[in-house]
Amino acid sequence: MTATAGALENRIVEGLDAAPVPVPLVVGTCGSGRTSLLLRLRDRLGAGRCQYVDVARIATTPERFHAALVAASPFSVAGLPPDAAQAGPRTAFDATIRFLQSAHTGQGTPATFLLDDVLELRTFESFPGLRHAVGDLVAALGDTPNRFVLTTRFRARAGRLAATGAARLRIETIPPLTTPDVEGLLAEAFAGPRAPVPDEETARAIGALTNGHVGYAQMVATELREMTQRGVTDPLSALAALISPGGRLDAACRHCYELRLHRARGYGALKAILDVLAGEEPLTLTAIAHRLHRTAGSTKDYLSWLEDVDLIVATRKQYRVADPLLRLWVRLNGRPAPPSDEDVAREVHRYAAERLATPRAEVPVVTTGVGVRTAGAGAVAGASDIIEFD
Q: Where in the chain is the domain with CATH 3.40.50.300?
């Protein structure tokens, strides 16, 4: 666990004993550690005092959600109708709310619920009488002595929910890693004999290349440890290996990309906009509409749908991809065939020059694939000689 994650965890635990008790809604991107945070809280509070619920796993129908929640719970509630799971969507959802409000521990003390990916309850909003299911649930959490910690991967949606004035709701954002955090990840990855831990400069580079994302940084640290045993010591080569087809970062980016697009409208058009921004950013609405050969009105709708699932952000009416590494992944994969080793090396080199604010001639040679001639430690590539192939 990093220092920043520990500070957030401590702040949440302290809030659970406050009066009035806040309802923290922890916002973090895919792989940012939201689930790990809740599981640590479960271990810290004790399984008899809290229940962890992965909402995305069981948010199928209101009836089945209620049945799964109650069946796995260590808590009890008097007066719940025994047939709530068969009584229809609205009745089952109301029974779920009553359970969350009234459940208590075996000692009769307030229960704590850790609801992971709570905004996945939007699934229920297509059922009769549940058009405002998420809002109804969050409002109900403010009217109970029970404690709650919520998480979501959707920052924009969380902000809109908080803006409704839902009682006790408090947005907590998972902060980016600091250089000392990355140094700690490297120390964990390189623990063991004959494994010298990379220096602060390497940690700083990893932080910049991963945009302070804990999941990405952990992957790079682990990959760098494995590559060091083969004589490769630079984080760019580790990044290239991870984002190549079949790599762990390739799989993580593909999962995030598809998950968010499937939570939005206009799948094909949204992919096209991401492809445009992967090649050039920031761009204005007019510039994007021109490249898509679409009207400004329809393009603005597409952009709002991308913003809704946090795939893009807008600053001073200019749009860019929210996650720099996902942008790199889109640039590599927006083509008819998987990227070659040459493609990966070239694009990673370009990405590093942008992220590290380093002249192209000073970015280390990227080592990837079996056809690449491995550069020695400290080697650099010229602007017109990015990487050398046999």
A: 3-173
Alpha-carbon distance 18 to 24, whole Å?
Answer: 12
Q: Where in the chain is the domain with CATH 1.10.10.10?
A: 250-332
Whole-model pTM: value is 0.86
Of 372, 311, 304, nearest in space to 341 by CA: 372
Alpha-carbon span 247 to 70, nearest angstrom: 39
3-173: CATH architecture: 3-Layer(aba) Sandwich (3.40)
Mind listing the pLDDT tens digit for each residue in 240-293? 999 999 999 999 999 999 999 999 999 999 999 999 999 999 999 999 999 999
DSSP assignment of 25-68 equals EEE--TTSSHHHHHHHHHHHH-TTTEEEEEHHHH-S-HHHHHHH
Rounded CA gap, 240 and 81, in Å? 56
pLDDT recorded at residue 379: 32
**Residue linked to tokens 């309802």:** 23
Domain 250-332 has CATH 1.10.760.10: no
